[in-house]
Amino acid sequence: MTERASPTSHRLLLLRHAKSSWDDASRPDHDRPLTKRGRRAADVMGTHLRTRGLVPDLVLCSSSRRTRETLERLGLAGAEVAIEERLYAAGEDDLLGRLREVDEGVRSGLLIGHNPGVQDLATELAGPARMGDAARIREKFPTGALALFAVDGAWRDLDRATARLESFTAPRDLG
User: Fold this and answer.
1) pLDDT at 8 (0 to 100)
2) In this structure, which of 1, 6, 76, 104 has its CB flanked by the most CB atoms within 10 Å?
3) Nearest residue to 66 via CA among 106, 138, 118, 124
4) Whole-model pTM above 0.85?
5) Three-class DSSP category at 149
6) Cβ density class 46-77: b for 16+ within 10 Å, e for less
């Protein structure tokens, strides 16, 4: 009788882009830059990620200017980066589908995207809990916020049953 291998454990980070500017109404949504507040928040979140040892192996980032600027300010040296048009304004199902395509060799992945898709996906993965971080995610997923999940099993099997919410952090939580 052969022994079954234990599930592979991955780490998933879901980050909503930092605060972006609405100052120029003629600017297409895709091209909106970060505000000063957004740049500060992205810097704070980058420090948080690096300090906690959460630098991912792979970053999947929407092609919008605000997500790319958020990524830049995180300072995640060494991570493989994929800027993807299909992540721009993607919904929960599309985001989940993309994450299920991640190569099994990737131990930790960060997805930088937009609401409502990021919040909807985080809410689904967090499950029905009505207290703590899961409740906070349901209530509001502010710009610059990060949901951290442990994933037991393969990326292709990612769903509520394989994901466990470990933490939810908004820039304001970090001072």
Assistant:
1) 55
2) 76
3) 118
4) yes
5) strand
6) bebbeeeebbbbbbbbbebbbbbbbbebbebe
